[in-house]
Amino acid sequence: MKQLSLKKQILWYGLGLLFIIALWWGISLAVSNQVVLPDPAAVAKAFLRLAGTADFYLAVLRSMAGILCGYLAGNVAGLVLGGLSGLSERFYAFMRPTMTLIKSTPVASFIILVLIWVGKTGTPAFTAFLIVLPVVWQTVSSGMRSADRKLLEAAEVFRLSAGKKLKYIYVPEAYPVYVGASLTAMGFAWKAGVAAEVLAGGMKTLGGNIYSSKIVLEIPELFAWTFTVILLSLVIELCAGAVLRKILKRGKLPSGRPSANPGEVAAE
Amino acid sequence: MKHGRSKGRKRASGAALNASGAAVNDPAQKGRGASSCSERGNASGLEKVPSTDLENVPFASFEGVTVRFDGKTVIDDLSFSLDGPGIYLLEGPSGSGKTTVLRVLAGLENAYEGKRFVNGKVSVIFQEPRLFEDFSVLENVMLAVDPKKRGVTRREAEAVCAGILGRLGLGAELSKKAGECSGGMKQRVAAARALAAEPDVLLADEPFSALDEDNRRTEAELLAEISSSCIVLIATHGGEGLFGEEAVKARIRLDMPG
Predict the structure, then answer these.
(1) Which residue among A169, B142, B170, B185 is the one 20 to 30 A from A135 at the CA level?
(2) Which of A254, A257, A266 sits opposite B182 (nearest CB)?
(3) Domain containing B151: what range?
(4) Looking at the structure, do residues B100 and B19 belong to the same domain, yes or no?
(5) Are A190 and A240 in contact (CB under 8 A)?
(6) Cβ atoms of B114 and B63 closer than 8 Å
């Protein structure tokens, strides 16, 4: 397929965006019921009104802080457990059922369970934690498990310390996959965290506001809060992507990728 | 001279010895080998108690070692002993288990029957170089050296490593990344790393395979040099002819299993 120029890409992207708005507007005109489907103008008005209040920014901050805490905790736990699983086959096998369980439970089910266990306040963070943990665990452990056996043997023979083995052999293998997966998981954690806020209800967070707007049938506001979540989701993913590219470009760790077999006599 | 418990089952002919006759399982012989070594290492050390010396003599042996992979016998009831410093050749066609013998000696293969004994620090020249590709040539060699343990500064240790690399014709490539080296260069870096580790037992798996004639000779010289204080066991297809018959202390021949 022919690569479009940047200008044309922007043009067609804009046309696609316009198409959604036009479709939305058209349907809302046809439905002609602001409670079922408010038109874009009403939503924009609601959004601008909300964006002018301090509560709006506090809600954004509360949501981000809570979900970020869970995200970071999930990373720390995933790195530690994944690291141990990468070093020990036994521990890997031991951890697998737990991780499979967490990963396969529907998000909505464990949000409700977490609500019962830890109460409203901690639920979004805990949900983000549970989303991120298995992803990080999986990539870190499998990244480490794919570390080069031959190089590890050489490290064994030359008595490299455990720290050096980790730094020169395991980390370079696991690091790029970990960073990629962890940044992708940030988007998931955000969406699941907001979902947890909605189900928890009654909090001054983004999800909490979505819930209250629904209760009082403030549908344009509900759309406006949802739009905020989408906007922040895009911002998070853009930032994560930029960070990822930067890290992968600059931070190529010294790795012990094995030498290829020397093969024939080298011409020197 | 043959040794081992059950000649009938053995496929390896044990160590075919040269005149010095040191590679034997007989404890008495072992003692003699050791004392001759101590004289060499310590010219005026006549008063030395033999037992303390024995502990410092490099020694490696197999007693009826058998290795099976997935039910297939790779090494069958092999016995030999490498008694004291010198060059030993491990010969046999490919597939006869040379690499496996070295791996068991190096402690990299734990699923074997029989007894393996190694006295001294082991170092290996692997068949594939196994270098850290993103590290420089010198850094790769330095990985085998722990300056703290040797009581030298890092700079001093680097000078030693650079010296070994220089001998192998890599003096101008110290800061080149290993990943950018040719196959022959990599193999010489791997050899330099193994030598820099200051081993008592050096296991070399086809160390000359990727080298041209000149580099083969240089590396053989270095191995011969270190063999005055170190067991150098070289796995080879045989007939490399780099070491004179008198320089080879013993040969171990492996035949195809079955």
Answers:
(1) A169
(2) A266
(3) 132-198
(4) yes
(5) no
(6) yes
Mean pLDDT of B88-113: 91
Domain count, chain B: 2
Nearest by Cα to A221 from A48, A19, A11, A84: A48
Q: What is the CATH number of the domain that holds A139?
A: 1.10.3720.10
Structure-block tokens of residue B256: 């195809």
Structure confidence by residue, pLDDT tens digits, A44-65: 999 999 999 999 999 999 999 9
ipTM attached to this prediction: 0.75
Q: What is the DSSP string of B34-54?
A: HHHHHHHH-TT-TTS-HHHHH
Pairing label, strands B15-17, B59-69: unpaired
Structure token digits, residue A211: 């819930």
Digit-coded pLDDT (tens) for B207-227: 888 888 888 888 888 899 899
Query: Does B97 lie in the same domain as B32?
Result: yes
Which position has the token pair 């491990």? Answer: B90
- In chain A, the residue whose alpha carbon lies closest to the alpha carbon of B193 is A158
Collapsing DSSP to helix, strand or coil, B204 comes out as strand
Distance from CA of A160 to the nearest CA of B (A): 7
CA distance A66 to B114: 61
